[in-house]
TrEMBL record, chain A:
Superkingdom as given in the UniProt entry: Bacteria
The Thiamine pyrophosphate enzyme TPP-binding domain, residue ranges: 407-555
GO cellular component terms listed in the entry, alphabetical order: acetolactate synthase complex
Domain Thiamine pyrophosphate enzyme central, chain residue ranges per copy: 215-349
Catalytic activity: 2 pyruvate + H(+) = (2S)-2-acetolactate + CO2
Family the entry assigns: Belongs to the TPP enzyme family.
Family matches, as Pfam families: TPP_enzyme_C, TPP_enzyme_M, TPP_enzyme_N
Cofactor dependence: thiamine diphosphate; Mg(2+)
InterPro entries on file: Acetolactate_synth_lsu (IPR012846), AHAS_TPP (IPR039368), DHS-like_NAD/FAD-binding_dom (IPR029035), THDP-binding (IPR029061), Thiamin_PyroP_enz_cen_dom (IPR012000), Thiamin_PyroP_enz_TPP-bd_dom (IPR012001), TPP-bd_CS (IPR000399), TPP_enz (IPR045229)
Protein known as: Acetolactate synthase
GO BP: any one term: L-valine biosynthetic process
From TrEMBL, chain B:
GO cellular component: cytosol
Keywords (A to Z) from UniProt: Amino-acid biosynthesis, Branched-chain amino acid biosynthesis, Transferase
Superkingdom assignment: Bacteria
Protein name: Acetolactate synthase small subunit
Gene3D superfamilies: 3.30.70.260, ACT-like. Chain A, domain 2
Lineage of source species: Bacteria, Bacillati, Bacillota, Bacilli, Bacillales
Root EC class: transferase
Span of domain ACT: 6-80
Length: 581, 161
């Protein structure tokens, strides 16, 4: 079931070969530098401004280049690759329209702190600023959505810039870095001197180790707390801090919720885990936040989808915020104990002194009671497929062991609610930007990073149509992603809001005219299956699992289903619509 | 409570830095009242002085967000310390010969200077803190201001700090 990823040749040998200083072109410098940074796979799309780069890639096999069918596919794939592997995702596009097609993907990665190095071509230096053919000021356009960016003006700067870009992308609060390379720079020659050592940049020194005094305050606060609660986010996964978090919970026995991006950062089967918080979170998590007297936020940023109405959020709690990005502390919620540092480093230090929260026994019992009384629930049916049931089927048959990517909408929330994640980097979803079109291409990237794991991409019938062209690259590269479409024939999440908030005024949500997804898959040479009831669903899904290559499985589900619980905008998170169960 | 804050930002003088900094203010909804940029004491670094209006929380966020920019090396909140702040204005004021002595009187009291004389106008140059310049403009208004340009504030902490 492995995707066809070439073995990266012996790294030492390669290094030796590439480390030799030599006079070469900017394009060759780029390729060598990528190899030296450990890149084994890039996603891209050629065009005039990057032709020298693509020419240098002719016959080049030291890393794999995946030709997507749209630049949006390329950047989401690079993003999925990064999220599922912890390595930097790399994407290449040409100037002008190629570059602007990346914008949504760059913003997606920026909002979720995903490390990417995005390489764009630009028109030749002397034409910059003249509205030349296919010119766009991509560094200007993307400034608010990149962690940093470079417009290369001299080929001699290229090795340093690439080395810095990887460093910036994957340290501190991670994020996308753009390198814009004018065409003449990719053609120009210079003596290449490889850059491998540590990077020193005067304005960039992320703080890794926390302040000891603050840690002691937290240890003290835990000892005193009667109702402590942990809110853990994506930072746990990104820092590789999941084991330290597990240890922290084991020692303190403090109940814990993980945000949408934190799913998998803590095992969902653990008795102290309370499910996801926020707009579609569990009753238990939201009650626990509201009633806690000590809220320990770890690598999460108090997103409004988590907090609901800020005024009235966690009203009784002393707030502790652990984050690598100092600007997050106090941004949305006033903080009593701020701790700036790498989540993993902070937790490891804390674990040396921290003790069981001894005053919280009644609280633990209360949390267990909520968990038992108010789990996620839905009304199942034997006549029509329920989307929640479909996710449960995927979970049971894969024992929670797959990498799951999703698109955006109701199916995303059901996947988050009903698939049980037990490992970090097995959940890939667009949280901050909520980007439709992300789900399927990100799965391609996740599979490229993990050739031997099962990758399932869960999509709505709406979002699937935003990047379905990438079926071609699954077929041609035999990328064995299992592409699930939860087809409710509408823009489901929008339908839900129109039902609950706009008085059943269903404005422009009908997806009539969608393709026959089975035929669509077949048109690309991908196996397509459809299920409309439980029996077909079980059979089709098993067939998909048994098929070595990519498969599209369409589950035709009930149109009216809503995601519950739900906190509507303007409410505090304990004011939840529970649905009819 | 909203107050005026003056901050100095030491940055790499790379292309696009001004855009990054001003873009950050725009995107995050921070107010820029004035912004000045120029060389600093060190080759390769520029110093920006930015006057903003906001509350204390705002100011803290501005500082933290600025530090996230890779090209920002140091941010100093000048208004929390005793500082010297100056701006320069040039005012082209309508001045027929009979009004000139009166205008010259204003110029002298403010220790400003006349830097150009036209047949029916004068250009007055004034340097000082914002209040002084506001006051000067008020006094010249009755004569008719044809054109006005101000540099925005630049500032430093007093003493050896
Ligand atoms: C690019 C983009 N456009 C619009 C939206 C707004 N939006 C959020 S969910 C949603 C409906 C998604 O419908 P579908 O893909 O069918 O998934 P479902 O909600 O039915 O599971 C829409 C339109 C978005 N998130 N992203």
């Amino acid at each position: 079931m492995s995707a066809q990823i070439p073995e990266v040749r012996s790294t030492d040998e390669l290094r030796e070969k590439w480390m030799k200083p030599e006079v070469i072109t900017g394009s060759e410098i780029l390729l060598r530098s990528l190899l030296l940074e450990g890149v084994d796979c890039v996603f891209g799309y050629p065009g005039g401004a990057v032709l020298y780069i693509y020419d240098a890639m002719y016959g080049f096999e030291d890393f794999k280049h995946v030709l997507t069918r749209h630049e949006q596919g390329a950047i989401h794939a690079a993003d999925g690759y990064a999220r599922a592997s912890g390595k930097v995702g790399v994407c290449i596009a040409t100037s002008g329209p190629g570059a602007t097609n990346l914008v949504t993907g760059i913003a997606t990665a920026f909002m979720d702190s995903v490390p990417l190095v995005v390489i764009t071509g630009n028109v030749i230096s002397s034409l910059i600023g003249t509205d030349a053919f296919q010119e766009a000021d991509i560094t200007g356009i993307t400034m608010p959505i990149t962690k940093h960016s470079y417009l290369v003006r001299d080929v001699e700067d290229l090795p340093r810039i690439i080395h810095e870009a990887f460093h910036i992308a994957n340290t501190g609060r991670k994020g996308p870095v753009l390198i814009d390379i004018p065409k003449d720079i990719s053609a120009a020659q210079t003596l290449f001197v490889p850059q491998m050592g540590p990077v020193t940049m005067r304005g960039y020194n992320p703080k890794v180790l926390p302040n000891k005094i603050q840690l002691d305050k937290l240890t003290q606060a835990i000892a005193e707390a009667k109702r402590p609660f942990i809110l853990a986010g994506g930072g746990v996964v990104y820092s590789g801090g999941h084991e330290a978090l597990y240890e922290f919970v084991r020692k303190t026995e403090i109940p814990i919720t993980t945000t949408l991006l934190g799913l998998g950062g803590f095992p969902s089967g653990h008795e102290l885990w309370t499910g996801m918080p926020g707009m579609h979170g569990t009753y238990t998590s939201n009650q626990a936040i509201q009633q806690s007297d000590l809220l320990i936020c770890i690598g999460a940023r108090f997103d409004d989808r988590v907090t609901g109405k800020l005024d009235g959020f966690a009203p009784h709690a002393k707030i502790v915020h652990i984050d690598i990005d100092p600007a997050e502390i106090g941004k949305n919620v006033p903080t009593d104990i701020p701790i700036v540092g790498d989540v993993k480093a902070v937790l490891e230090l804390l674990n040396q002194d921290v003790k069981r929260a001894n005053q919280a026994d009644a609280w633990r019992a209360q949390i267990q009671q909520w968990k038992n009384e108010k789990p996620y629930s839905y009304k199942d049916s034997d006549t029509v497929l329920k989307p929640q049931w479909v996710v449960e089927l995927l979970d049971e048959t894969t024992k929670g062991g797959a990498i799951v990517t999703t698109d955006v909408g109701q199916h995303q929330m059901w996947a988050a609610q009903y698939y049980k994640f037990n490992q970090p980097r097995s959940w890939v979803t667009s949280g901050g930007l909520g980007t439709m079109g992300f789900g399927f291409p990100s799965a391609i990237g996740a599979q490229m990073a993990n050739p031997d794991r099962l990758v399932i991409s869960i999509n709505g019938d709406g979002g699937m149509q935003m990047c379905s062209q990438e079926l071609a690259i699954c077929a041609i590269n035999n990328i064995p992603v299992k592409i699930v479409i939860i087809n409710n024939q509408v823009l489901g999440m929008v339908r839900q809001w129109q039902e609950l908030i706009y008085d059943n005024r269903y404005s422009h949500i009908d997806l009539a005219g969608s393709p026959d997804f089975v035929k669509l898959a077949e048109a690309y040479g991908v196996k397509g299956l459809r299920a409309t009831n439980k029996e077909e669903a079980r059979r089709a899904w098993q067939e998909a699992l048994d098929t070595p290559g990519p498969v599209v499985v369409e589950f035709v589900v009930s149109k009216e289903e809503n995601v519950y619980p739900m906190v509507t905008q303007g409410s505090t998170i304990d004011q939840m619509l529970m649905g009819d169960e | 409570m909203t107050i005026k804050n003056t901050i100095a930002v030491l940055v790499n003088d790379h292309p696009g830095v001004l855009q990054r900094v001003s873009g950050l203010f725009g995107r995050r909804g921070f107010n820029i009242e004035s912004i000045t940029v120029g060389q600093s004491e060190e080759v390769g670094l520029s110093r920006m002085v930015i006057v903003t209006i906001g509350d204390e929380n705002n100011l803290e966020q501005i500082e933290k967000q600025l530090y996230k920019l890779v090209d920002v090396i140091k941010v100093i909140d000048l208004s929390s310390k005793p500082m010297v702040s100056r701006e320069l204005a040039m005012i082209k004021v309508k001045a027929e010969p009979p009004q000139r002595p009166e205008i010259m009187g204003v110029v002298e009291t403010f220790r400003a200077a006349v830097v150009d004389v036209g047949t029916t106008s004068l250009i007055v140059q004034v340097i000082g803190d914002t209040e002084k310049i506001d006051a000067m403009i008020e006094l010249l208004k009755p004569y008719g201001i044809r054109e006005l340009t101000r540099t925005g504030v630049t500032a430093m902490i007093r003493g050896n700090a």
